[in-house]
Design the sequence.
């Protein structure tokens, strides 16, 4: 019955209905095509943006990698230089320490020698003073025992003002007085020279003690400086903050 109805239907109407159906299908397909095209374009834009971002990020990472490699090379070079410098500093400070120890030993020996010389000079000075006093006492005793000299000199050893009547006694008294004065001046001069030598020796000992104390301070400062530089070099090479060295106690100076 349907086939008979379709056969009985006007072909023009059938064609129109089929045409409308095909037009609707075409419009629907075109809409789907537009949607797909729009989605494709949007996807391409998003992918392009993601690709640009990935390329930018890759460039940044490559630059950071190059900088890191360069810094690593520079750090290794600096570490090598610091190790060489540390070795040189160790050698220099070792030589300076040996030289300073030698100087200290030498200075100590000189000080001991000067102390011994001063002790000998003091003993000699005391002996000379005692001998001078004994000689003076002997001279005074002889002069007081002498008849002519006792009239000229007092018990304290000073000259008495008296007039002599005889020319020979005056000449003899003057000769004895001159000889005694000459001996006294010689003994006083020798005593003054001995005292001067003693003072010079004490001054020299004091100067050597001062030099020894300054040398000990320089050695301690050199040790502290070497220790500080070594720690800073190690900390810098490892990339950490350098430690500040603790202040070392100064060695006590010997009293002069």
Sequence:
């Amino acid at each position: 019955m349907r086939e008979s109805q379709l056969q009985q239907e006007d072909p023009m109407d059938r064609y129109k209905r089929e045409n409308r159906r095909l037009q609707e299908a075409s419009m629907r397909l075109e809409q789907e095509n537009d949607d797909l095209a729009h989605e494709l374009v949007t996807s391409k834009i998003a992918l392009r943006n993601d690709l640009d971002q990935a390329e930018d990020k890759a460039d940044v990472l490559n630059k950071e990698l190059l900088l890191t490699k360069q810094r690593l090379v520079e750090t290794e070079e600096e570490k090598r230089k610091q190790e060489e410098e540390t070795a040189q500093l160790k050698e220099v400070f070792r030589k300076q320490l040996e030289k300073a120890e030698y100087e200290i030993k030498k200075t100590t020996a000189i000080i001991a020698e000067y102390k011994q010389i001063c002790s000998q000079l003091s003993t000699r000075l005391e002996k000379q003073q005692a001998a001078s006093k004994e000689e003076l006492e002997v001279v005074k005793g002889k002069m007081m025992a002498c008849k002519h000299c006792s009239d000229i000199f007092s018990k304290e050893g000073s000259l008495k003002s008296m007039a002599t009547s005889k020319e020979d006694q005056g000449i003899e008294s003057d000769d004895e007085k001159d000889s005694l004065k000459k001996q006294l001046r010689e003994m006083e001069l020798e005593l003054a020279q001995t005292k001067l030598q003693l003072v010079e020796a004490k001054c020299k000992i004091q100067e050597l003690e001062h030099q020894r104390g300054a040398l000990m301070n320089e050695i301690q400062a050199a040790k502290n400086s070497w220790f500080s530089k070594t720690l800073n070099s190690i900390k810098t090479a490892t990339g950490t903050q350098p430690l500040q060295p603790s202040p070392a106690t100064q060695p006590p100076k010997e009293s002069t």
Notes: The CA atoms of residues 64 and 70 lie 10 Å apart. The chain has a mean pLDDT of 77. Helices lie at 2-8, 11-145, 147-152, 167-238. The two ends are 146 Å apart (CA to CA).
